[in-house]
């Protein structure tokens, strides 16, 4: 057989590596800025663009899609060429992929601080960017499948299976979750409402973790770990079993983000049991990684690459055990909405993704530049400071989560809430927030050391943009028999199709009944669509990212109904496009805040939260008092919502602004009666209208004065 | 007697929180006032503590054993020592057995003919404990779904809530039997007892202060320190407003949150604010109330 000569494209990998490091540092820096605002609200620099609610999505998008995303592409482009013994399918597609992805990130960096957000977590980017993501993702997919098709290796290695699953699933998740009706160029409403929107969102959110942060990195682990350890992969059988079980089961587990909410019980139970069944498949990956190191543990002590990888794989194991445990109802009742969850995701993010990326970079850069690592010692320091950073980050937040949750639930002997003022439970954990920020600074310090080390390494070597390689071409011959899975491994199209089937089943079983069977969301007669002014207010709530700190979901616990009022019902959210249940209670729940305080209170509170709530860590929102809502957008909003099923009468958009002005005048008159002068079109008026409406529909005609 | 009981409860709840206390000094000051955490919470905290302690005990045991071993080995003859060292440790043996590990020397037997960019693959068995874990989790899933959705033998969240509320109601009515007061909103007297006023103050600053400002000078709610009142300024009027709230305003009813004695304490404290003239107080609102001499 004649050997064919070809070249690996290292240049594209280099570019993705540079983007990884640059966006990693930026994303972490934004994280520290946010972490600081949690104990020093003034750290928002007094600007709306750098206030917590707007930069939280910036942080999550930057670290997930820019840092981890670029690292994924770097890892995939490097390993895939070598595992398939071929250059990437098309250089042109590689570069469209690279620059397209960076443009998307740039768009995110611009739009998110401006408040252009859909509010759906990890999918905040607005519809034009969603379309761009779809296009670029398809480019990546074509490039990947094309490379597989022109491979010189008969069978696909386990890393490639994971890359295929990543491409297929992320495509499905992104498209389904991004169904939205555009209102303006940078504003849209989710196609789904309330409970259904929540289900779709957390099916997406959970599986973004699964198929953007987990499966590609398992693939990366399967390439770089045996390479760095120079050991054979522990068990081929384990690879097969844990790959298929992982991708099949993962997709079902989304509802565990919605335990004790208005999601139907049966869907919640599916979320719980599939999470439990996910422990073994996840640990299969960890075991195959750790056991591959058998006989190489003495090297782990010296080699920073292996050290990073060992901690990464261990963190993966810890996070994937903790996740299922958090999906058990009793544990979830305590942990949900608290900082425990923030700690949990950061063990995964900083430990698994971060450390695996660091290990990969320390291994890959010296090879691509044909040299040795500039300083192994500095890499070791990075390892220890990074590990310390994770611990200092996570431990205070675990403590904060448990302490705050116990305080929320604490009843005194007389049967009353021991801490009726939510603020008390916040001031208690502020010291933990400070420690967490220190942890973040330590972790970032390590990353800066790495950046320096890598630049120095590159400087002392010389970059090989084109790396020559040779391999025999695949013969066009029919091969029969072999292990049943080996058969699949040489049929990439069938493999991809089977992957698609495996990941679609769970979503379909959970979503279709929730959408079609009426009894899942019992109708409540008194629930009405939002008024035009309230709609504007709701969009401001989304723009400012209030949902990043406030939930709108009173869970059926005595401690919550005593504190907030009647627990939330599925039927109350039927006109909520998108749903705004939130996932974290840095501040109190707001679902029953309507009519609880008067307009003046809200006015003062938004202008200076500390004036009404001394010690509050909420930032002031002075810009809401000077900026005005755009009345020209009202008609578009009404029309868009009618398209997705909100029963506004035909032609209502023509007269909606009259209703809007009437309601705005009522509020500004009420404020004027208290000597507060404010323009009727000021944003604050709309926001107050929305807040006063929240959760009041089922209180109509009842003189129930419970808050 | 009641006091002692609550003291004990206070104490025990403090110990429940012990694992967190050392991490959170500010909490220590706070728990002084806490009088108990729910049974379930206590249960989980205790279980968590037990697990931590047992882990520590196991760790300690391992250390002691290895220490003993070192001491014993010191006494041994060199030949015996060598034979001991050949023997893999108990842990290594168990580890190998549980994972069904093939000795590293025999690795070639299970090496597959795979070679991906130099990466080889072994054909090790699935670790037996891992398989067991997987099967167990599937069994758990089936039982879970059966219990909640087929046999319906465990409460779903709505029912769970009803149960929790019923228990609280029962406990409350028990409690209320012990608090017998001889007043209601028509005749509640002002209580000038220092302890009662301090209790009222504490509650006022934490709760009422959100709308009326901690010093009562008024914020979103009216000034409570002057002689002008929207709903009357007598002790009974104030008590009535706090207890029953004012419909269609932000002034909610506190009846379900405070027992009559504490309601009286808060009302007394509000009453005592008259004439304090705090800085930045809101202007008068409502009607002038003139104290009747006999009240």
Automatic annotation (TrEMBL), chain A:
Binding positions for heme b 1; low-spin per the UniProt entry: 59, 346
Protein name, as recorded: cytochrome-c oxidase
Location(s) in or outside the cell: Cell membrane
Single Gene Ontology MF annotation: metal ion binding
CC cofactor: heme; heme b; Cu(2+)
GO cellular component labels: plasma membrane
Sorted UniProt keywords: Cell membrane, Copper, Electron transport, Heme, Iron, Membrane, Metal-binding, Respiratory chain, Translocase, Transmembrane, Transmembrane helix, Transport
Family in the record: Belongs to the heme-copper respiratory oxidase family.
Principal EC category: translocase
TM region(s), chain numbering: 12-40, 60-78, 98-115, 127-149, 156-176, 202-224, 236-253, 273-293, 305-321, 341-363, 383-407, 433-455, 493-516
Binding site for Cu cation: 206, 256-257
Record pathway: Energy metabolism; oxidative phosphorylation
Cofactor remark from the record: Binds 2 heme groups per subunit, denoted as high- and low-spin. Binds 1 copper ion per subunit, denoted as copper B.
Catalytic activity: 4 Fe(II)-[cytochrome c] + O2 + 8 H(+)(in) = 4 Fe(III)-[cytochrome c] + 2 H2O + 4 H(+)(out)
Residue intervals of the Cytochrome oxidase subunit I profile domain: 11-475
EC number(s) given by UniProt: 7.1.1.9
Gene Ontology terms: biological process: aerobic respiration; electron transport coupled proton transport; respiratory electron transport chain
Membrane topology, record value: Multi-pass membrane protein
InterPro entries registered for this protein in UniProt: Cyt_c-like_dom_sf (IPR036909), Cyt_c_oxase-like_su1_dom (IPR023616), Cyt_c_oxase-like_su1_sf (IPR036927), Cyt_C_Oxase_1 (IPR000883), Cyt_c_Oxase_su1_BS (IPR023615), Cyt_c_oxidase_cbb3_su1 (IPR004677), Cyt_c_oxidase_monohaem-su/FixO (IPR003468)
Positions that bind heme b 2; high-spin: 344
Main location: membrane
Organism: Roseivirga ehrenbergii (strain DSM 102268 / JCM 13514 / KCTC 12282 / NCIMB 14502 / KMM 6017)
């Amino acid at each position: 057989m004649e050997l064919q000569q070809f070249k690996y494209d290292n240049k594209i990998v280099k570019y993705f590596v540079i983007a990884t490091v640059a966006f990693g540092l930026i994303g972490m820096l934004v994280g520290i800025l946010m972490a600081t605002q949690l104990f020093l609200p003034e750290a928002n620099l007094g600007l709306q663009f750098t206030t917590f609610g707007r930069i939280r999505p910036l942080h999550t998008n930057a670290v997930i899609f820019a840092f981890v995303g670029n690292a994924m592409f770097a890892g995939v482009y490097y390993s895939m060429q070598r595992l398939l013994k071929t250059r990437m399918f098309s250089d042109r597609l590689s570069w469209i992929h690279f620059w397209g992805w960076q443009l998307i990130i740039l768009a995110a960096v611009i739009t998110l601080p401006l408040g252009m957000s859909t509010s759906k977590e990890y999918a905040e980017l607005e519809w034009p960017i969603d379309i761009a993501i779809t296009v670029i993702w398809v480019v990546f997919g074509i490039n990947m499948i094309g490379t597989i098709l022109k491979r010189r290796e008969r069978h696909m290695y386990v890393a490639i299976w994971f890359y295929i699953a990543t491409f297929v699933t992320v495509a499905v998740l992104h498209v389904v979750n991004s169904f939205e009706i555009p209102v303006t160029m940078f504003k849209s409403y989710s196609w789904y409402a309330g409970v259904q929107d929540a289900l779709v969102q957390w099916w997406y959110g959970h599986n973004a973790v699964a198929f953007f942060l987990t499966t590609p990195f398992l693939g990366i682990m399967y390439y770089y770990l045996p390479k760095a350890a120079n050991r054979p992969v522990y068990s081929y059988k384990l690879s097969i079993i844990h790959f298929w079980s992982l991708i099949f089961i993962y997709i079902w587990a989304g509802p565990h983000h919605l335990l004790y909410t208005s999601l139907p019980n049966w869907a919640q139970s599916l979320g719980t049991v599939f999470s439990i069944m996910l422990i073994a498949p996840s640990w299969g990956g960890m075991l195959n990684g750790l056991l591959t190191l058998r006989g190489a543990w003495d090297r782990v002590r010296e080699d920073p690459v292996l050290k990073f990888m060992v901690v990464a794989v261990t963190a993966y194991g810890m996070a994937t055990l903790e996740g299922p445990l958090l999906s058990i109802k009793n544990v979830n009742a305590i942990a949900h909405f608290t900082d425990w969850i923030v700690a949990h995701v950061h063990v995964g993010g900083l430990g698994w993704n971060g450390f695996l990326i660091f290990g990969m970079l320390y291994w890959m850069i010296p090879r691509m530049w044909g040299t040795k690592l500039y300083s192994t010692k500095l890499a070791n320091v990075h390892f220890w400071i990074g590990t310390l950073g994770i611990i200092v980050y996570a431990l205070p937040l675990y403590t904060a989560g448990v302490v705050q949750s116990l305080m929320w639930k604490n009843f005194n002997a007389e049967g009353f809430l021991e801490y009726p003022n939510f603020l008390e439970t916040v001031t208690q954990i502020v010291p933990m927030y400070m420690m967490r920020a220190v942890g973040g600074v330590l972790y970032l310090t390590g990353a800066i050391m790495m950046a320096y080390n890598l630049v120095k390494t590159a400087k002392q070597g010389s970059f090989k943009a084109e790396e020559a390689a040779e391999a025999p071409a695949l013969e066009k011959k029919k091969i029969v028999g072999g292990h049943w899975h080996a058969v699949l491994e040489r049929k990439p199209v069938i493999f991809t199709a089977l992957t698609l089937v495996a990941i679609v089943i769970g979503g379909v079983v959970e979503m279709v009944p929730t959408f079609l069977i009426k009894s899942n969301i019992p109708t409540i007669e008194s629930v009405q669509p939002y008024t035009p002014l309230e709609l504007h207010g709701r969009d401001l709530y989304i723009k400012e990212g209030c949902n990043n700190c406030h939930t709108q979901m009173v869970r059926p616990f005595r401690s919550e109904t005593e504190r907030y009022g009647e627990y939330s019902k599925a039927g109350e959210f039927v006109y909520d496009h998108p749903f705004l249940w939130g996932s974290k209670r840095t501040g109190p729940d707001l679902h029953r805040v309507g009519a609880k305080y008067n307009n003046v209170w809200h006015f003062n509170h938004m202008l200076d939260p500390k004036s009404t709530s001394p010690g509050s860590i909420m930032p002031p929102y002075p810009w809401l008092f000077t900026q005005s809502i755009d009345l020209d957008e009202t008609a578009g909003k009404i029309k868009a919502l009618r398209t997705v099923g909100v029963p506004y009468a035909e032609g209502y958009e023509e007269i909606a602004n009259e209703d809007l002005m009437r309601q705005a005048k009522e509020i500004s008159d009420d404020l004027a009666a208290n000597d507060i002068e404010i323009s009727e079109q000021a944003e604050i008026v709309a926001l107050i209208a929305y807040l006063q409406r929240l959760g009041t529909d089922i209180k109509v005609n009842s003189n129930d004065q419970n808050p | 007697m009641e006091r002692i009981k609550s003291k004990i409860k206070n104490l025990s709840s403090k110990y429940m929180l012990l694992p967190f206390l050392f991490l959170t000094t500010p909490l220590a000051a706070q728990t002084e006032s806490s009088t108990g955490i729910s049974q379930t919470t206590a249960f989980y905290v205790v279980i968590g503590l037990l697990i931590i302690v047992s882990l520590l005990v196991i760790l300690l045991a391992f250390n002691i054993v290895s220490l003993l071993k070192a001491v014993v080995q010191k006494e041994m003859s060199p030949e015996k020592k060598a034979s001991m060292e050949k023997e893999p440790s108990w842990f290594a043996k168990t580890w190998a057995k549980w994972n069904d590990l093939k000795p590293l020397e025999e690795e070639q037997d299970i090496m597959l003919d795979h070679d991906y960019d130099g990466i080889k693959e072994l054909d090790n068995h699935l670790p037996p404990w891992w398989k067991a874990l997987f099967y167990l989790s599937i069994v758990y899933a089936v039982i879970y779904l059966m219990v909640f959705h087929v046999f319906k033998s465990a409460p779903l969240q709505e029912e769970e809530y009803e149960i929790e509320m019923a228990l609280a109601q029962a406990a409350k009515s028990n409690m209320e039997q012990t608090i017998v007061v001889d007043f209601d909103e028509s005749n509640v007297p002002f209580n000038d007892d220092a302890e009662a006023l301090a209790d009222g103050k504490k509650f006022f600053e934490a709760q009422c202060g959100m709308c009326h400002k901690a010093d009562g000078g008024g914020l979103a709610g009216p000034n409570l320190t002057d002689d002008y009142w929207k709903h009357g300024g007598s002790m009974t009027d104030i008590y009535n407003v706090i207890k029953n709230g004012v419909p269609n305003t932000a002034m909610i009813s506190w009846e379900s949150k405070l027992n009559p004695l504490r309601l009286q304490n808060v009302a007394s404290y509000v009453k005592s604010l008259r004439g304090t003239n705090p800085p930045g107080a809101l202007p008068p609102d409502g009607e002038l109330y003139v104290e009747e001499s006999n009240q």
